[in-house]
Recover the amino acids of this structure.
């Protein structure tokens, strides 16, 4: 203090100097500092420590409201938010949350969303991929939990998870991230769209409840076209659109500055953006995206780029947003890690780690037998260590481990990659282990079927025939009475939904010398043969079976699915399956 601070003050030569520090100061310590800084600090009241600053913020709460990061990034608040279930289910996620919020810059969408929550009690946050929807939702949640005393409950799969925790007399906020699907419109559970609207109505009429939902804007628009409840809801959808216009030049500059400041980039890379105001080409870029800024300021990605090429790579990544993952996918991860990402894109959200491993080995060994590359028993574990926390997240729920993509843009990239890689799609079909892999591969990218499915139609139909009643990787979270996740159970799709997936349309057939089957064919079993011998109806070749016949309460197919073998005619084109 005497050597450094005193010299700075003397250079400034102020008439009065007020010292502020975040360190706690006792009255005795303040007196010692006053003596050192006399005559610039004339009184101990000119020296403010941590307690003094907190007292001032308590007297001027409008300052704290305006600069929410004064409280939001503190260890105490973040841990309280973590315990409330806002951010994740694991302690390891806390540091990632802290870093993300330190880099966050408040923009007009924050105030718009908060006004909607205060007025209507619910808010749908929508926008393009990577615009900051989830971060905005997390900030709003932390605000409600820490400053207004709300309890937070996350919805992982569907609204049934809230049934046991809703209490109209308690202050509760419900959070449903990507409620219509992560990258494309997902098929909702039966009557789920009606339950969503009904919950919004309940929340709107209850001053103790808040409801925050996020989705991509194009997915929300698709849902309004598909579901009548969304097209003509009984209440107005209060939507906060986060758009690029919210990121004015000063806000873009602060976001870039925060990401650079809190990064561990080499000094040469930082200087490459500063020299000659090179950063201006980033701030004014038409594709400016917080997600690309985050990616290109991570040492794990930017460290391999020479400093002399860093600016060019940065701008190229904004020109072509999906290529930020292309370089890493093709050149920075192992063969096994690439197989993990490809397989994960064919599985439902949040699959169990054990199921991902099963699907990985089926795909990996199939490719090894086809291409002859060397494999090791440790490839799976090595790939997980390489990807976890970077391209994928693994987290523990109760005694179970589940896996997800680190963020939706990685799934976007993998699906784009498969759109132009017919060979990989064909191999995924040939090695698929779970029923959902067929359904997801059929759906393709944004409901645009992969070219590899049409090219490999015989292969797809043949493997689907053998595995239509195969194992499932779909899961559902188990929660306790407080709404805390305590485990994960499998939730296989019904035999009815599987039959609907494989059902052929009753379309007119083109003339042919030999009649073609019009529906799913079933091989007759001894049970149906005996039934026909007694005068009952058996299941014969070419007979059409309704899905509810297949899956009714008294159906032997439901009780003993292995006694009925579904066979889809190989002569049928995939389009005739009628799967949407």
């Amino acid at each position: 203090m005497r050597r450094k601070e005193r010299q700075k003050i003397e250079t400034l030569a102020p008439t009065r100097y007020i010292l502020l520090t975040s360190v706690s100061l006792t009255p005795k310590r303040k007196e010692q500092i006053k003596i050192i800084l006399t005559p610039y600090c004339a009184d101990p009241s000119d020296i403010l420590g941590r307690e003094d600053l907190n007292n001032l913020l308590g007297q001027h709460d409008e300052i704290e409201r305006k600069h929410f990061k004064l409280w939001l990034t503190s260890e105490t608040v973040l841990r309280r938010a973590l315990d409330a279930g806002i951010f994740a289910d694991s302690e390891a996620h806390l540091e990632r949350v802290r870093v993300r919020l330190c880099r966050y810059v408040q923009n007009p969408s924050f105030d718009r969303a908060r006004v909607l929550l205060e007025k209507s009690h619910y808010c749908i946050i929508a926008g393009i991929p990577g615009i900051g929807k989830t971060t905005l939702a997390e900030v709003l949640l932390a605000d409600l939990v820490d400053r207004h005393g709300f309890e937070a409950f996350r919805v992982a799969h569907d609204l049934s998870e809230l049934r046991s925790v809703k209490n109209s007399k308690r202050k509760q906020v419900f959070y449903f991230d990507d409620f219509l699907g992560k990258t494309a419109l997902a098929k909702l559970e039966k009557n789920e769209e009606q339950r969503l609207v009904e919950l919004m109505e309940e929340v709107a009429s209850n001053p103790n409840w808040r409801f925050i939902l996020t989705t991509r804007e194009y997915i929300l628009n698709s849902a309004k076209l598909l579901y009548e409840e969304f097209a003509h809801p009984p209440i107005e959808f209060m939507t906060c659109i986060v758009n690029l216009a919210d990121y004015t030049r000063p806000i873009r500059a602060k976001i870039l500055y925060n990401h650079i400041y809190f990064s561990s980039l080499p000094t040469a890379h930082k200087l490459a953006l500063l020299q000659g105001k090179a950063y201006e080409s980033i701030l004014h870029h038409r594709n400016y995206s917080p997600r690309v800024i985050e990616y290109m300021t991570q040492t794990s990605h930017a460290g391999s780029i020479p400093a002399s090429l860093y600016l060019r790579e940065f701008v190229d990544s904004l020109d072509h947003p999906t290529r930020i993952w292309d370089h890493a996918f093709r050149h920075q991860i192992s063969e096994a890690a690439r197989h993990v990402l490809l397989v994960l894109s064919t599985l439902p959200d949040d699959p169990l780690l054990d199921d991902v491993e099963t699907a990985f080995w089926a795909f990996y060994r199939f490719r090894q037998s086809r291409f002859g590359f060397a494999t090791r028993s440790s490839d799976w574990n090595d790939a997980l260590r390489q990807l976890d926390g970077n391209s994928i997240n693994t987290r523990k729920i109760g005694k179970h481990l589940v896996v997800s993509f680190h963020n939706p843009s990685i799934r976007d990239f993998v699906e784009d990659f498969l759109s132009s890689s017919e060979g990989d799609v064909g191999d995924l079909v040939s090695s698929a282990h779970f029923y959902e892999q067929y359904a997801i591969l059929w759906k393709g990218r944004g409901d645009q079927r992969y070219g590899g499915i049409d090219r490999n139609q015989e292969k797809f139909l043949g493997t689907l025939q053998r595995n239509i009643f195969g194992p499932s990787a779909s899961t559902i979270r188990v929660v306790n009475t407080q709404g805390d996740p305590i485990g994960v159970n499998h939730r296989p799709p019904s035999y009815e939904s599987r039959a609907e997936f494989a059902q052929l349309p009753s379309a007119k057939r083109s003339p042919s010398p030999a009649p073609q089957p019009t529906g799913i064919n079933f091989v007759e079993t001894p049970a149906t043969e005996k039934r026909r011998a007694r005068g009952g109806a058996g299941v014969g070749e070419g007979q059409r079976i309704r899905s509810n016949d297949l899956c009714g309460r008294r159906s032997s197919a439901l009780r003993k699915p292995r006694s009925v073998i579904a066979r889809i005619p190989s002569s049928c084109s995939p389009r005739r399956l009628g799967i949407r």
